[in-house]
Amino acid sequence: MKLSCALILSVVVVPLALAESPRVVLTPLRGNVYVAEDYFYSKENSVVFVGENSVTVVGATWAPETAKLLAAEIDKITSKPITEVIDTNYHPDRAGGNAYFKSIGAKIISTKLTSDLLTAHWEEMVAYVQKGFPNYPALPLVLPDTTFDEDFELQGGSVKAIYLGPSHTPDGIFVFFPREKVLYGNCILKEQLGNLDFANLAEYPKTLEKLKRLNLGFTTIVAGHWSPIHGPELIDRYLQLLAARQR
Ligand SMILES: [Zn+2]
Known about the structure:
This protein has one domain: Metallo-beta-lactamase, Chain A (4-Layer Sandwich). Helix content is 35%, strand content 24%. The protein has 7 helices and 13 strands. A hairpin with a 2-residue loop joins strand 1 (24-30) and strand 2 (33-38). Residues 1-19 have low confidence and may be disordered. Zinc ion (ZN) is lined by residues 44, 91, 93, 187, 224-225.
């Protein structure tokens, strides 16, 4: 009798305790694409692509600590090495894990614009995050190893980075996975307006209209914050949120 009570208690109590502690969860989405949910600080979603010989991480997560947790999750699904990590904008939720990924031999990749913004504003961005999350570490700047002037492709064209203009930040990119018909919406696309302190409100809707006009044919959008999985209608939803705000 005592034992069964203890069992019931542990079943009830343990999941609650886990739900409250920060963690990184990796979930298969489709084909080679996995969604990483990083519950540290302000929850963010990144993407992992398991290629033929190596793994590409899209979004470096918040910090070396979260990057290490993500690498441990990736280890559970594949023995392939993480060889490249894309910083999808210059903010700490997309570049904070750079130091860890670099330490395990991965190359950090971004556009030149993102790299320039990291150089110019990293310390200021860390201080900005610390205003909301005083426990966010004072991370030193770790710049990308490889930068591209324009759009770029990795994994033989299975991972396509696309820049269409300013939005949530001046530099945010989308990442398209053509085989899986998945678009990573980065901090640009999400179910709520989110933080607009660094946004270009005049260009944001134009950038999203450009994305629609590309007709990439994705059936799923992975949002960078809040719940990760959405259909293509997330673009119109976000356009409506922007329009309602400006009215
Ligand atoms: Zn973000």
